[in-house]
Task: inverse folding
């Protein structure tokens, strides 16, 4: 059983909930009621007070932390289980994840800032004649078999296959992202990885 720690934005209520939940013989803890309008500082204050009051040897699940940036920040704070709804958000809105997973990965540069792009919008007409895959280095079936132009056509036509192919790519890309996170944690270089990621990707 996983218990849910509540308390809105009230730090005292959050602390009390965390302390009481920590007394229970449970498998882990879920942090409820975040990513619902609070700012980053408020959220980090809440998460810090919670993490100080729950045991580190049990699962700490944080619903709402779905983007690559949210995930990295939450891992730094001590959380280790996440939901996968961001992949579905990308897919159903015609996006393909393209953020570089490492410094040596293929990347797409945003012209105005020089930073790496995290996702591309396949509804965009610039892809209507683009015969390249989403990412040349990506091993997924979508990238090995289909072009951006074909995917643009599918999303424009609201063809069901568009969601299937985009979901394949986005799921594989995020799986590789988590593999990289595990590698960096194992090598004790995770903090440097987060710093690189957040300073180079938009």
Result:
């Amino acid at each position: 059983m996983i218990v849910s720690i509540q308390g809105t934005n009230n730090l005292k209520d959050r602390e009390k909930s965390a302390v009481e939940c920590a007394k229970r013989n449970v498998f882990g803890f879920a942090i409820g009621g975040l990513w619902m309008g609070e700012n980053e500082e408020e959220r980090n204050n809440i998460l810090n007070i919670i993490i100080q009051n729950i045991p580190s040897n049990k699962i700490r699940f944080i619903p709402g932390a779905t983007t690559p940036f949210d995930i990295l920040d939450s891992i730094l704070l001590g959380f280790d289980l996440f939901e996968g709804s961001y992949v579905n958000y990308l897919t159903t809105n015609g996006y393909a994840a393209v953020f570089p997973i490492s410094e040596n990965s293929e990347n797409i540069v945003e012209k105005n800032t020089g930073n790496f792009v995290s996702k591309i919008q396949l509804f965009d007409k610039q892809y209507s004649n683009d015969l390249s895959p989403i990412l040349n280095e990506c091993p997924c079936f979508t990238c090995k078999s289909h072009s951006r132009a074909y995917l643009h056509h599918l999303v424009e036509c609201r063809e069901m296959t568009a969601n299937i192919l985009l979901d394949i790519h986005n799921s594989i890309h995020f799986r590789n992202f988590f593999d990289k996170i595990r590698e960096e944690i194992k090598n004790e270089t995770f903090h440097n990885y987060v710093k690189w990621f957040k300073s180079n990707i938009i």
Remarks:
- Strands lie at 2-5, 28-31, 59-61, 95-97, 119-121.
- The CA atoms of residues 50 and 57 lie 14 Å apart.
